Amino acid sequence: MTRRIAWTLLILTSVLLVLAVVPLAVSLTAREHVAYRDSQRAATRVIAAAAEEHLSDNKPPIVMRQELDAAARAGDCAAVYDASGRLVASTPCKAAEGEEAEELVEAVLTGHEPEPPENEGRLLAAEPAGEVRRPAGAVVLARSAGPLDARIAAIWGWSAAIGVAGLTASAVLSVRLARWVGRPLSTLDASARRLGEGALGERAEVGAGPPEVRRLAATFNTMAARTEALVHGHRAVIADVSHQLRTPLAALRLRLDVLATGAEGDTAVELAAAQEEIARLSRMVDGLLAVARAEQTTPRPTAVRVGEVVDERVAAWSPVAEERGVRLAVVREGTAPTAALGEGHLEQVLDNLIANAVEASDSGGSITLGHGTIRGRIRVSVRDDGPGMTDEAKAVAFRRFGNPEARGTGLGLAVVHRLVTANGGTARLEDTPGGGLTVVLDLPLWVEDGHGQGGA
Fold first, then answer.
1. 420 is in which domain, residue-wise?
2. Which of 245, 277, 296 is the last residue in one of the domains?
C-alpha cells in the first residue's frame, strides 16, 4: 500500500509538472525568438533609414557608414544593396552577403515579405530602404544566434531544475505521506493476523497515522479485548463444566460398580443397564466438551506433514480395526503434502473420522484413507463401505446430534467440521461408489512465509 500511494502521488505530480513547466518553457522560448527577431529587425531598419538618404537623396554616405560601423562593433554583419541588387557598402564581416542574402534582397525589392533563414548559426534579416512598394535599395543584417541559444538553454535549464526540484520534493512528501498512512495499516494488519492465529492478547498501536486509522485501531483493540474476555470466559465455563460433571459421574459409576458386585437376578440386570447409561452419559459429556473446545479453537498454523500423520493414526487404529474385522489402508496421490494446521488438530480430526468409520463398518469391511494435492489445496479423504447416510442425514451431519442414525454420540462429525473450518479448510460428505460414506477434507497448503493459503 505504501508503494502504491507513493507511486500514485509521484506520477500525479510528474504529470502536473510536465503540463505546467513544458508549456511555460515553450512559451518563453517563443517569446525570446520573437524578441530577438524584433531587435534584429529594428537594427536593420536603422541602417535602412540611413541608406535611404544616400540612395534616394544622393546624400554623402557618412551616416550610412557610421551605422554600419556601429553594427560591426555590436558584432553584427550588414550589407547595403541598391535598387538593382548591387552591393553598395558592407561591414568587414561578409556574412550578410552571398546567395541567401541576394535572395532576400530580391524578395524585398519586389515587395515581398522574405522568410529570413539561419545561416551557420547566424540569423539573417532584410528590410527595404525607402518605401516598401518602390524601395531605393535593401539592407541585410546577419546576427549571431548564440545569445538567443544561450537564453533558450537557460530557460529550459531553469525549467528542468524546477521540475527536478518539484519532483524531488514530491517524492519525499509522497514517501512520508505513504508511510504515515500505510505503516499503521500494516501494523494493524499484522496485529489482526496474530489475533486470528490465537494471540488473544494482541493489540494494535493507536497513536500513529491519520485520525481514521487511529479510530480503526482503537475499534480493533476494543473488539480484541471483548473477544479475549469472551474466549477466556467460555474456556472457564468449559473447565468448570468438565470438572463439575465428570467428578459426580465418576463417583456415581464407582457406586454402581460396588452395588453390582453383590447383585443378582433382576437387580444385577438393572444395575448393568444403569452402568451402560452412565457410560453413555460420560461419552456424551466428553463429546460435548470436545465440540465446545473445537468451537473455541483459535489455531496458530504450523507445518503438518499429512502423510506422516495419516500413517501414524492408521497404525494406532489398526489393532482396533482388526479386532472388529475391518481392514485399514492408505492411498497416496503424488508427493506427501504439508498442511498449515493447528498443532494436534489433524490427529483429532482423523481419530474422530476413523472411529466413526470403524463403528459404521461391519466385519470384513474396509476403510481407506487417501491424501494428495489438488489445485493448491490438500485433500484428505476417509472412505468406508458401511451403510452410508441418506441425503437428509448428510445435510445435518455436521451439527450437534445432527445424525439420528449415528451409533455413537453423534458429535464426532461436529468436532471434525469445527476443527477443519477453524483452520481455513472445508469438509463435505459424499457417497462411496458401491455403498458407504466418504468424508472429504480440503486443507490449506503450507507456504514458505509461514502461513497457509486461505488459512485461518
1. 302-444
2. 296
